[in-house]
Design brief:
The complex is a heterodimer of chains A (448) and B (364). Chain A is built from eight helices and 32 strands. With 448 residues, chain A is an alpha/beta fold. The chains are: A alpha/beta (448), B alpha/beta (364). Chain B: It is found in: Cytoplasm.
Chain lengths: 448, 364
């Protein structure tokens, strides 16, 4: 193939500079990740043996040109200190910093607030990764498309089933040129099944002006939500109150909050060189605590395909992929997998069966117990012959709830920190808050 | 002496087990239900037994031939061409029951208890009247027909009260009787009920007495009661110190009341009991937990399975880490997949279950 000279945007004729921003949100955001987020900020929750945010960071480190990474959010300063220390130790060539918003500014507002830090050294472009997505982060392909199209913005998109598309940001693109023609966040009617994965690459000279003009628009007049029907027009700045009630992004009313999805992307589609990279690889959101189980499965699968030596060796009792922390103790008669992560110092007894599950630090699963489609919280204990069980959901399904006897329940069973399940007790489709002891069989309940 | 056992129809209440074997041959405490009755009758000196059936499965004929020899008795089938109720079959078998003047026993085939035939016969002779019915004490008499005695007599029955609203007594008809052949004169050859027609007519003449049953009693005609009856039966064996039970000194026996056929094999680190019967050639894998359940002949329970309040039918297989509970009943040759959960599943023969049965259901 004839190689085209890639247009270089670099200011000084050298190779262009690229940075990366990981958006982590804040403690008031992760409510849907309860009960697990009661004890640990969601970005630090481990799936496939690593904190969720580390999967993002690892993808960034695969691009050698990225030397500077920012974590933007409104958690306390100390929350990411250890994580950043670890990253700095393992990747001395990369500078990683936490930029704390003192109030939630929205995804775009946060970027704009820290524009001086991001723009320092005059980078040409930067990635923005939402920490709550689980995917293969094909950053290099995004970069290639960006350069090939001489783009000002590239968004990562994926196809979802038509009936779930309206739960996401929908992208209409030109099939041939990959140019984004139209973008709507959570439309009411079907627009496209190509949806926003929450991973972007922006040209610095395009995105900040776009955010600035969005802020100006906002200052001039409050945000007008585009409703398809005219009878909604008088509800001017009504912020999406009829949207899915379980959506906890409820900070839309504050004028200073500017979000990429609602306030920027649609304009980019109208006025900028905005392209979409459609990934055929796995993608899903990590919103509810239950979604950590499919995320764990996807990251484990990826590690397995890459023949990662972190994973446990397949055998008669290890159905790959399985991650076992080196400090965990697993009885040789226990059967694990597929898609199981066992945390540090966890103890797995004789004749235990674990499938599609995460067992966290210091948890103990006693002999002959069975844990399926579940998360066993830190220092929790599951008794002998107990059965902790969720319901399998279809792989393509982006929801973590199922309807049982007409009631919507969590498909994944979750035991919070230091819970105890008695011997022979069965726990099915339950969410159990921390420090509870379950002595009797329970099903389809939230246990306070 | 003579006896008639009311077997009746297809035993639909005990399906799916009775899709494979006629009810009298379904093993209770590792022996066919009817054998408990035949043995007790033979021990009391009965030589002629009539089985009142309204169908005649070949398989039963063969099985009963064996018992004839074993207990030195004659077993006769009395086949109803149309259902004759609970009294009609007596008339149909008049030739045998009325062949001499000695009284005969009548019992429902679903009843399990410590059959007191000898004492019953002695008591019956002592009062010299036409009939004696065995009664048992129950906690909630309002669900049954209650026996009320004559005020001046401890055993002579005054009347029956069907499902009493107010307390009139706590003794109910246990489904076991001894009757003089003269009773046959009171019965016509038509569908008729012994409880509602024959007994009231005997009561009217002051000829019917009651006999208190000691110990346990259960109608085991349906799975839930079959399991409860098994518990009562095993408890009574424990009380008697019966050799039929597995010694509680076995490390895997938990809480006693465990009956394991010698040909069954038990894995390591199992916890079995209380109230478990394990039939011939059953294989139990390592780390299995069993309680309040019945495993019929040839069953295989794989490692780490957990079974409670369940009847596992002949030659069925229960997968690793499977969990069965809440009166699940597996028919013949059923397979429960690894890790599958069954809550009150009633599974017909030859089915393979690969997905959870979360709520009680019949799996066709």
């Amino acid at each position: 193939m004839a190689s085209l000279q890639v247009p270089v945007r670099g200011k000084s004729g050298g190779s262009p500079t690229t940075k990366a921003v990981i958006l982590v949100g804040g403690p008031s955001r992760g409510t849907r990740f309860r009960p697990l987020s009661l004890d640990l900020p969601k970005p630090l929750f481990e799936v496939a043996g690593h904190p969720i945010i580390e999967h993002c960071f690892a993808a960034i480190t695969r691009l050698p040109e990225i030397r500077e990474v920012f974590i933007v959010g409104y958690y306390d300063e100390g929350v990411f200190r250890d994580f950043i220390k670890d990253c700095a130790r393992n990747h001395p060539a990369i500078s990683i910093r936490y930029l704390r918003e003192y109030q939630a500014l929205g995804t775009a507002g946060g970027l704009y607030h820290f524009r001086d830090a991001i723009l320092k050294g005059r980078p040409d472009r930067f990635f923005v990764l939402n920490a709550d997505v689980c995917c293969s982060f094909p950053l290099e392909q995004m970069l290639r498309l960006f350069e090939e199209k001489d783009a000002e913005a590239v968004i990562l998109g994926t196809r979802v089933p038509n009936d779930s598309a309206t739960n996401f940001g929908c992208i209409v693109s030109d099939a041939h040129s990959k140019r984004v023609l139209h973008y709507v966040e959570k439309p009411e009617s079907h627009i496209s099944n190509l949806i926003n994965c929450g991973v972007y690459l922006f040209a610095t000279e395009a995105i900040f002006p776009s955010i600035k003009s969005a802020m100006k628009r906002r200052a001039d007049r409050p945000r007008l939500v585009s409703y398809p029907s005219s009878d909604a027009l008088d509800r001017t700045y009504l912020p999406r109150q009829d949207r899915a009630a379980d959506d906890d992004d409820d900070d839309g009313e504050k004028t200073e909050v500017i979000r990429l999805e609602q306030d920027i992307l649609s304009d980019l589609a109208d006025s900028r060189q905005f392209y979409v990279l459609e990934t055929k690889d796995f993608w899903r959101q990590i919103k509810t605590a239950g979604s950590a189980v499919p995320a764990n499965a996807l990251y484990l699968m990826k590690a397995f395909q890459q023949q990662s030596d972190e994973l446990a060796k397949p055998s008669a009792t290890i159905l790959p992929p399985v991650f076992i922390h080196p400090t965990a103790h697993v009885d040789p008669t226990a059967k694990l997998g597929p898609n199981v992560s066992i945390g540090p110092r966890a103890i797995i007894g004789a004749g235990v069966r674990i499938k599609e599950a995460i067992v966290l630090e210091d948890a103990e699963i006693r002999h002959d117990a069975c844990v399926l489609y579940a998360i066993v919280g830190w220092s929790s204990r599951v008794g002998a012959w107990a059965r902790v069980e969720g319901t399998p959901t279809p792989v393509r399904e982006h929801s973590t709830s199922v309807v049982k006897n007409g009631v919507k329940v969590q498909s994944i069973t979750i035991l919070g920190k230091e819970c105890v399940v008695g011997d022979e007790v069965r726990v099915q489709n339950c969410v159990c808050l921390p420090y509870k002891e379950l002595k009797r069989d329970v099903a389809n309940e939230v246990i306070m | 002496m003579k006896a008639l056992i009311l077997v009746g129809g297809f035993g639909t209440r005990l399906r799916p087990l009775t899709l494979t074997l006629p009810k009298p041959l379904v093993e209770f405490g590792n022996r066919p239900m009817i054998l408990h009755q035949i043995e007790a009758l033979a021990a009391a000196g009965v030589t002629d037994i009539v089985l009142a059936v309204n169908y005649r499965p070949e398989i039963m004929t063969a099985a009963l031939k064996k018992y004839e020899k074993e207990y030195n008795i004659r077993i006769e089938f009395s086949v109803e061409t149309e259902p004759l109720g609970t009294a009609g079959p007596l008339k149909l078998a008049e030739k045998i029951l009325g062949k001499d003047d000695t009284p005969f026993f009548v019992l429902n085939s679903d009843i399990i208890c410590d059959f007191p035939f000898e004492q019953l016969a002695k008591f019956h002779k002592s009062h010299g009247n036409e009939g004696t019915i065995v009664v048992t004490k129950v906690e909630e008499p309002s669900k049954y027909g209650v026996v009320v005695h004559k005020p001046d007599h401890p055993s002579r029955i005054d009347r029956f009260v069907e499902k009493p609203v107010e307390f009139v007594g706590n003794r109910i008809n246990a489904g076991i009787y001894i009757l003089n052949p003269s009773v046959l004169q009171r019965i016509e050859l038509r569908p008729t009920s012994i409880e509602q027609e024959t007994f009231p007519s005997i009561v009217k003449d002051g000829q019917l007495h009651s006999f208190d049953l000691e110990g346990f009693w259960m109608d085991v005609g349906q799975p839930k009661d079959f399991l409860s009856g098994t518990c009562l039966y095993l408890s009574s064996l424990t009380k008697k110190g019966s050799k039929l039970l597995t010694s509680t000194s076995e490390p895997f026996v938990h809480g006693g009341n465990v009956m394991i056929d010698p040909s069954a094999t038990i894995g390591k680190n199992c916890k079995i009991g209380p109230n478990v019967t394990i039939g011939p050639n059953v294989t139990i894998g390592d780390g299995v937990r069993l309680q309040r359940c019945v495993l019929l002949q040839g069953t295989k329970v794989k490692e780490h399975a957990w079974i409670k309040s369940t009847i596992v039918g002949w030659n069925s297989t229960v997968g690793r880490w499977a969990r069965l509970e809440n009166v699940s009943v597996l028919g013949d040759d059923v397979t429960i997949g690894d890790e599958v959960y069954c809550n009150g599943a009633s599974v017909l023969p030859h089915k393979s279950i690969k997905q959870n049965v979360d709520a009680p259901a019949i799996i066709m």
